[in-house]
Amino acid sequence: MSTATSTTTATAPAGQPPVSRRAKRQQGALGRSVLLHVLSVAVLVVALYPAVWMLVSSFKPTNEIVGDPSLLPSSAGLDNFRTALAGIGGVSFWTFTWNSLLLAVLSVVGTVLSSAVTAYAFARIDFAGRRVWFAMMIGTLLLPFHVLIIPQYIVFQKLGLVDTFVPLLIGKFLAAEAFFVFLMVQFMRNVPKELDEAARIDGCGHVRIFGSIMLPLLRPAVITSSIFAFIWSWNDFLGPLLYLNSPEKYPLPLALRLFVDQTSVSDYGAQIAMSVLALLPVMLFFLVFQRFLVDGVATQGLKG
Questions:
Q1: Can you give the three-state secondary structure of 71-115, one letter per residue?
Q2: Is residue 223 within 8 Å of 292, Cβ to Cβ?
Q3: For burial by CB atoms within 10 Å, which of 40, 144, 157, 229 has the most?
């Protein structure tokens, strides 16, 4: 029996670890995998807790939102949503929503059109001082917005444009968003210049090349810019706070503060309910276009 056992051990493949060592390695890998999943779930819970708290609190009475440590409400209801939909200050919720939607859509249109044209000039047209102007444009990204608040407000006040949407939109149509211009310039530089040369041989000018060749190829960058422009405009609070004075012109972020009054009773329930309603368009917009956002990021790595 001992001879048979020794023979079996000797005929085992050379270099193969013993069964006990292999089992220990498998157990160690399983333990690391479990630990990694536990840490991931913990981080996910911490990251999603504010959103869950806001969603649950929108169904709570106002007196249970502040000072109540429990997450689940003792009596859930839709009163907060009814109050939010009824509006405040004589202005309905749908007016606030229309103002936000108008600002967001016009911001997307202005940002995409002006940034695409400006990016084409920097990426495809060789003019005097192109690199200097491009460097100056990139330098505006380092300039804090708060430095420009007072000069811009004085200019718009002198022009009589305060309490209008013009101060919030004019920069979008003048390619003042250097981030989007830079994004599209980097995308255009990856497009082969042979396409432009072939189009010029066929008699196309810059307008035809931009509209028929460059703009269709720029689709991932355009959609990426549209997503960011829409979300940034929809969530903008400081700009409307500075330039809008009439409640009927307020967008949703500015309307939220109307429910909080430090001198009287604050309706936190209606404010949170309106916050939930205000998040829905952004979430739907992102869910619809997230595939294009991923395609845009992936296409940045392709070379012509």
A1: CCCCCCCCHHHHHHHHCECCECHHHHHHHHHHHHHHHHHHHHHHH
A2: yes
A3: 229
Contacts 24+ apart (CB under 8 A), 279-286: 281/97, 281/101, 281/234, 282/230, 282/231, 282/234, 282/235, 285/227, 285/230, 285/231, 286/227, 286/231
| Whether the Cβ atoms of residue 221 and residue 187 lie closer than 8 Å to each other | yes
Which residues does 125 contact at the CB level (< 8 Å), separation at least 6?
A: 206
Q: For the whole model, what pTM was predicted?
A: 0.78
- With beta carbons less than 8 A apart as the criterion, state whether 158 and 199 touch: no
Residues 3-34: tens digit of each pLDDT:
444 444 444 455 555 557 777 777 777 778 88
Distance set, CA 36 to CA 40, 47, 64, 91, 123 (Å): 6, 16, 36, 50, 45
Instruction: Give the integer Cα–Cα distance in Å for 156 and 166.
Output: 9
Q: What's the CA gap between 63 and 65, in Å, rounded?
A: 6
Q: Residue 19 has what pLDDT?
A: 55
Distance CA 69, CA 71 (A): 6
Domains belonging to the chain, first-starting first, are: 90-299 (1.10.3720.10)
Q: How many DSSP H helices and E strands does the chain contain?
A: 16, 0
Q: Letter for the amino acid at 67?
A: G
The closest of 160, 170, 143, 141 to 239, measured between CA atoms, is 170
